[in-house]
Amino acid sequence: MPDLCHRAPTVYTELIGYARWLLEEIGFDGFRYDMVKGYGGWMVRSIQELRALRDSTSFKPYAVGECWDSERTIDDWLDETNAWSDNPVGAFDFPLRWRLRDLCDSYGFSLRNLAEQGVLAWDRPAQAVTFVENHDVVRSSPIINDKLLAYAFVLTHEGYPCVFWQDYFNWDLAQPDNPSGINALIKVHEQNAAGSAQVLFADDDLYIMQRPGVGHQSGLIFVLNNRGDWNGTWIETRWSNTRLVPVAWRGRDELSAPAGKWTNDSGWVDLWSPPRGYAVYVPE
């Protein structure tokens, strides 16, 4: 394709007009900016600062940029693009995706890595768009094994999670009415996943994270197990004298549901996850 000079007045004016048409006439709510290293962040910012009008109501477009690189490069792009902007754009969390691929496909992956900085979901979660698979990486570096471990992570943690169409519709990972599929995790995300993510425990084979909840979203505890048998430990939660019930779980070659547990007066409880699997507990 021929290069475009966005600073040429005609090109700039046409692009702004096209973006407004997509928002106001076609009904777009926002944009995915492809290969953002190929053009200036100021052009993205210009589009993001549009005030579109639909049904007499003004709104700002949501947006995410595809900066396929290290967290440092993504940080630099976000800083440049969002400088002085009143409608900041997010970015796909590629560094987290590589960790999730290793979680699912690499023997001996330590769950301590999931709690470390160096990914957008931990370092700037308000601008992190988390994902497990997309149309590019599924061709070049797909996740082969235990992909729902990765979906359980992104749909319980901070960030703006994406579900890949083929995983949901073509590869039978949605599993409606089944606590072991994407559908159950989406329900958790909508009803419970709120508040800052707080790692309560992490070693090579067990990882436990808490979201305290905000408003009508009640919070959750996520337990991830990398061992071949049931695994769990005592943790101190934000809830005292509260029953925590499992609402989503999955285990390799294990169909048994985790047991609900009561926290004690101090908020302590022992929570477990199925073999090579996860469990999401919520306050009842």
Question: How would you summarize the topology of this molecule?
Answer:
Elements: H1 9-26, E1 30-33, H2 41-48, E2 52-54, E3 57-59, E4 62-65, H3 71-82, E5 90-92, H4 94-105, H5 120-123, E6 128-129, H6 137-140, H7 147-154, H8 165-170, H9 182-191, E7 198-202, E8 206-211, E9 220-225, E10 231-236, E11 243-250, E12 261-262, E13 268-273, E14 277-283
Parallel strand pairs: 1-4, 4-5, 5-6
Antiparallel strand pairs: 2-3, 7-8, 8-9, 9-14, 10-13, 11-12, 11-14
Structural class: alpha+beta
Q: Could you tell me how far the N terminus lies from the C terminus, measured between alpha carbons in angstroms?
A: 56 Å
- Beta-strand residue percentage: 15-25%
* SS element count, helices: 9
Parts with pLDDT < 50 across at least 5 consecutive residues: none
Number of strands: 14
The average pLDDT score comes to 96
* Main sheet attributes: strand count, strand direction, barrel closure: 6 strands, antiparallel
| Largest beta sheet: strand ordering | 7-8-9-14-11-12
Amount of helix: 25-40%
SSE pattern: HEHEEEHEHHEHHHHEEEEEEEE
> What overall geometry do the principal axes of the alpha carbons give?
elongated
- What is the CA-based Rg, rounded? 21 Å
Which oligomeric form is depicted? single chain
